[in-house]
Amino acid sequence: MESREELSERLDTLKEKIGEVAGYIDLERKTERIKELRDKTMNPDFWQDNLKAQKITKEISDLEYEIKRWNTILELQEDADLHFMMSDEDPDLSKEIPEILDKLEDEITSLETEKLLSGEYDKKNAIFVIHPGAGGTESQDWADMLFRMYTRWFEKRGFEYTVLNYQPGDEAGIKEAVIEVKGPYAYGYLSAETGVHRLVRISPFDSNARRHTSFASVFVYPEADDDIDIDINPKDLRIDTYRASGAGGQHVNKTDSAIRITHIPTGIVSTCQNERSQHKNKEMAMKILKSRLYQLKKEEEESRKADLEKDKMEIGWGSQIRSYVFHPYTL
Predict the structure, then answer these.
(1) pLDDT confidence tier of residue 99, bands split at 50, 70 and 90
(2) Distance in angstroms (rounded) separating the CA atoms of residues 163 and 144
(3) Architecture in CATH of 4-116
(4) Cα–Cα distance between 286 and 270 in angstroms, integer?
(5) Pick the CATH number of 126-302+312-325 from 3.30.70.1660, 3.40.50.300, 3.40.50.1970, 3.30.1360.120
(6) Cβ atoms 324, 197 nearer than 8 A
(7) Which of 140, 141, 257, 283 is most exposed by smallest CB count within 10 Å?
C-alpha cells in the first residue's frame, strides 16, 4: 500500500503530465470550431448535401469527445486534490485516493496514446476479422477464444460492436468471425493486432493431454465510408445469397437472407448474415468489401504485393506477432 507521501508524489507527476498534454489540447480552438460547425448546421439547406452534413456532424462529435475527455481529467485532478485536503479531517477519504489516481493515470495515458494515433484513418471505426489457421478443431477453438477475448476488450474499452458474420466450426470454435467495431480511434487502437496469433497449451481435445500449438489470424481494416475513395465496378462482383447459419431466429435460418460478395479481379470475398433483411446484409457486405479493397490499395501504394490475400503472412510457424503460452516449455 502506498504511503501518503508516495501518493502525493504520484499526483505531482500526473499534474506534470497534465501540463504537457494541455500544451497540445488547445481547448479554446476546439470550442470555437464546434461553435462554427454548429452555426452551419442551423442553415436550412444543411442536409441538402448529405455527405457534407455527415462529415460536419462527425467532426462535431469528435471534438466534443476530445473536450469531454479533457474535462474528465480536470475533474479527476480536482477530486484528488480535494481528497488530499479533506483526508486530514477524515482519514477514510485517503483510502479512495489510489483509485482516483489510477483513473486519472488511465485517462492521461489514453489521451497521450490517441495523440500518437495520427494516421489518416486512425479515428475511424474498424472491421475486425478472425480466421483459424491449419489444424482443424484446435485452431478453430483458438479462433473462438480470440473472438471472446477481443469482444470483452471492446466492452471494457467502451466500443460498440456488431458481429456481422460468425461461422461455427465443425466440432468446436469458429471458421470465421467478422466484427464491426465502433468508437473513437477504433481502427487506430486495433490496427496493430493484424497478424498471426499463436497458442501453446495442453489440448482439451487430445485424450492423451499432449501439448499443442495452434494459430489464428486477425485482420483489421478501417470501416469504409465516403471519405475512402474506392471505385467498384458492379461487373466485377459476383453476389450470392444463402441461408444464414447459427443463431438468429426462425426467419434468419429459413430464408436466403445472407449475402456473399466476391470481387472477381482480386478474389476477395465479403459476407454478412447478421441482419434479417437481405438488403441490409448486402449493404454491410459491400462496406466490408470496400474496406478490404482500400487495404489492398494502401498496400499497393506502399509498394507491397498487389494481391492482399497473397500479401498476408502464412498462418503458421515463424510468422506470429504474439504468442500465448499456457503450457511453458521445460528444458
Answers:
(1) very high
(2) 13
(3) Up-down Bundle (1.20)
(4) 7
(5) 3.30.70.1660
(6) yes
(7) 283
